[in-house]
Amino acid sequence: MSLATLLVLADGRLPSGGHAHSGGLEAAVAAGRVREVRDVGGFLRGRLQTTGFVSAAFAASACARTGAFMDLDRGLDARTPSPALRRASRAQGRALVRAGRAMWALPDVGREPHHPVALGVLAAAAGLGPLEAAVAAAHGAVSGPASAAVRLLGLDPYAVHSLLAGLAPEIDRIAADAAARADDPVDALPAAGAPLLDIGAELHATWEVRLFAS
């Protein structure tokens, strides 16, 4: 396993469109649920334990497989009630596959896979394993919203990154748990839900003016 390769895959500057998404934070800010650094910490922790855990498990499973990615795609559809979130995930997956093809030889994963599936496929193509794919997914589930929080609320970036540092042990734990399930059937993979993220995403999709795509 190459740590440098994992850093490439988890780097927020990878041209995969992640900077255009707030992970539901923009809707939470507009609803008044997130106002300060402490609120951001709660949001990130909740997102990690729900969406982040599911994403990590599906990324690990996609990394461990040699095909049948459509089964994983359908499994993520079933776990994503919000059409807006499904569109956002597939848009990011498409962009990630495009970036990945410039770096590694990828198997056919479809034109517009869900982001966690694309991430797992890229991890395998880069020579990484399910644990590394899960780490990248779990880290991305919180690093994107953390970056968005600085832009949306004008927060101290040092304070926000302190939150990410504090979450590192939890990210490791979530990733290890997710990777341990990489060989489970799709129906047995985690299905932790976050209804407020789904509701917020649908409301956010109706806005005429917004800073982030999701």
UniProtKB/TrEMBL annotation:
<protein>
    <recommendedName>
        <fullName>Urease accessory protein UreF</fullName>
    </recommendedName>
</protein>
<dbReference type="GO" id="GO:0005737">
    <property type="term" value="C:cytoplasm"/>
</dbReference>
<keyword id="KW-0963">Cytoplasm</keyword>
<dbReference type="InterPro" id="IPR038277">
    <property type="entry name" value="UreF_sf"/>
</dbReference>
<dbReference type="Pfam" id="PF01730">
    <property type="entry name" value="UreF"/>
</dbReference>
<comment type="similarity">
    <text>Belongs to the UreF family.</text>
</comment>
<dbReference type="GO" id="GO:0016151">
    <property type="term" value="F:nickel cation binding"/>
</dbReference>
<comment type="subunit">
    <text>UreD, UreF and UreG form a complex that acts as a GTP-hydrolysis-dependent molecular chaperone, activating the urease apoprotein by helping to assemble the nickel containing metallocenter of UreC. The UreE protein probably delivers the nickel.</text>
</comment>
<dbReference type="InterPro" id="IPR002639">
    <property type="entry name" value="UreF"/>
</dbReference>
<comment type="function">
    <text>Required for maturation of urease via the functional incorporation of the urease nickel metallocenter.</text>
</comment>
<keyword id="KW-0143">Chaperone</keyword>
<keyword id="KW-0996">Nickel insertion</keyword>
